[in-house]
Design brief:
The chain is of the alpha+beta class and 329 residues long. The protein is 29% helix and 18% strand. It has a single domain (4-322), classed as B-lactam Antibiotic, Isopenicillin N Synthase, Chain (Jelly Rolls, Sandwich), CATH 2.60.120.330. The chain has ten helices and twelve strands.
């Protein structure tokens, strides 16, 4: 029996085997660098994240979004630049009839505080130990990826070497890291727009996207600017670099446009859930050029234009929920 995905126009995306981390590190570095310089995305297989924790996170998403609207709205993230909490459908600027998704962002720093974590929706309170463990495993994988990135960029030892990026992404430091739970119901029959989540790039450093069998993620192919689906691959993680890395590397590595659309016709009747871990630089970190021989030196103007990760993320989120552009974006 043929797979319906065989007839879908899908993006050409590198599949990276994490076994190379211990078996052939040089090949792993090459594959990640190639992906970072071209599409900005790759699919990671044989990764170390516990499957039980992943399955538990998808169940948590279903439990959270099954709560009464009045309960969920008590934790609404609002429009002030806060990016933690609940987002109801049709809350994005200019969403028209396309923004049908529900979203709940869980702060990594909240998970580090067992007392504050009790002041959340009931499913989040009940799942706290497993959710924290999931965040810790995701962050550990991100750090391994960032260490490889630092090695690829040949950051001098005196500047921090392989630990340069790790020192800016400590789990115990305050940052915008978060777990995002997403639910996309089947679009209604009168649905006109193709986008369920508008075209965007991610704000931070590294994104880990966990999906199931229902498609919907599309990437803008830099070769011809066409939007193409990412074919779901069971048990994998879709990894992409964010704007902080593109900014740090002055465009040497790519933070690429992507969006979520209605699934292909054969899955259009299905609800899609996603679980995402967004890793972002620590709040106090200044987003400045990485000291690498591959990255051009700053101009005088660039040296004077400094912004912290906290300012960067808050401005980007504010723009996302209100459309208010900040001068340094």
């Amino acid at each position: 029996m043929s797979d319906p995905w065989d007839s879908i126009d899908t993006v050409k995306i590198a599949v990276v085997d994490w076994k190379l981390h211990s078996q052939n590190r040089e090949l792993l570095k090459k594959q990640i660098n190639d992906a970072a310089r071209t599409l900005g995305f790759f699919v990671l297989i044989n990764h170390p994240i516990d499957k039980n924790l992943i399955d538990g996170s998808f169940q948590l998403a279903k439990d959270v979004f099954a709560q009464p609207a009045a309960e969920k709205e008590k934790y609404e993230m609002g429009t002030t630049g806060n990016y933690f909490g609940y987002k109801a459908p049709r809350k994005m600027p200019g969403a028209n009839n396309g923004d049908h998704n529900e979203m709940y962002n869980i702060s990594k720093d909240l998970l580090r505080d067992p007392v504050a974590a009790q002041n959340q929706l009931r499913p989040l309170v009940d799942a706290y130990p497993k959710t924290k463990a999931f965040a810790e495993e995701c962050h550990s994988l991100v750090c391994d990826i960032l260490k490889i990135c630092a090695e690829v960029l040949e950051i001098p030892k005196e500047a921090g070497g392989a630990n340069y990026l790790l020192s800016r992404h400590r789990f115990e430091a305050k940052s915008g890291d978060q777990i995002r739970l997403l639910q996309y119901p089947p679009p209604p029959p009168e649905f006109e727009k193709n986008e369920l989540l508008f075209a965007h790039t991610d704000y931070g450093s590294v994104t880990l996207l966990f999906t199931q069998s229902v498609g919907g993620l599309q990437i803008c192919d830099p070769e011809d600017k066409q939007w193409r689906y990412v074919r779901p691959l069971d048990g994998s993680i879709i990894v992409n670099l964010g704007d902080a890395v593109q900014h740090w590397t002055k465009g040497y590595w790519r933070s690429n446009l992507h969006r979520v659309t209605a699934p292909p016709a054969f899955q259009r009747h299905m609800t899609r859930h996603s679980v995402v871990y967004f890793a972002r630089p620590e709040d106090a970190v200044v987003l400045e050029r990485i000291p690498s021989p591959f990255i051009p030196e700053d101009t005088v103007e660039e040296k004077q234009r400094k912004i912290t990760a906290e300012e960067w993320i808050k401005a980007r989120v504010l723009y996302g929920v209100t459309g208010q552009q900040q001068s340094y974006l």
